[in-house]
Specification:
Elements: H1 43-46, E1 57-62, E2 68-73, E3 91-92, H2 104-110, E4 125-131, E5 137-142
Antiparallel strand pairs: 1-2, 1-4, 2-3, 4-5
Length: about 150
């Protein structure tokens, strides 16, 4: 069992900070549906593209406005009963290829996922994505998150 390392200077007795989205670094793309590198992540745009998915990862769709394509380590996704997902996150950007996002907060910022609630709530990952008979990536079954 691993515990998250505390940042230097943080006090365990300090009150929790209310959620605030950090502004992206200067020069980053902030357009909905695109990652900060400016690559299109919208399912409607990339459904016919070949996407490299590492072993152990699945393509899923994140949503508020557009269904965004994400590659997520399947160990952090629930089973069909909404259980057995490991705590934490591991994801890659399918747009620019950046790998190794270990926090959903960091990942949601990178893919410009505009959220009104705290982004570490991975319930914004809504659908499994599958290839249809024509080979196009389409929305599959709903990801079953339990309480």
């Amino acid at each position: 069992e691993e515990e998250e390392e505390e940042e230097e200077g943080s006090e365990s007795s300090s009150p929790p900070v209310s959620y605030q989205m950090k502004p992206p670094p200067e020069g980053c793309c902030t357009t909905d549906g695109f990652c900060q590198a400016g690559k299109d992540l919208r399912l409607v745009s990339i459904s016919n593209e070949h996407i490299e998915v590492p072993s152990g990862f699945l393509l899923v769709g994140a949503k508020p406005d557009h269904l965004l394509v994400c590659a997520v380590d399947k160990r952090f996704l629930p089973d069909d009963n909404g259980r057995n997902a490991l705590l934490g996150f591991s994801g890659n950007c399918v747009g620019c290829g950046k790998k190794g996002f270990c926090y959903f907060t960091e990942f949601s910022n990178h893919i410009n996922l505009k959220l009104t609630t705290q982004p570490k709530k991975q319930k914004h990952l809504k659908y499994y994505l599958v290839r249809n008979a024509q080979g196009a990536l389409t929305k599959g079954s709903v990801i079953c998150w339990k309480g």
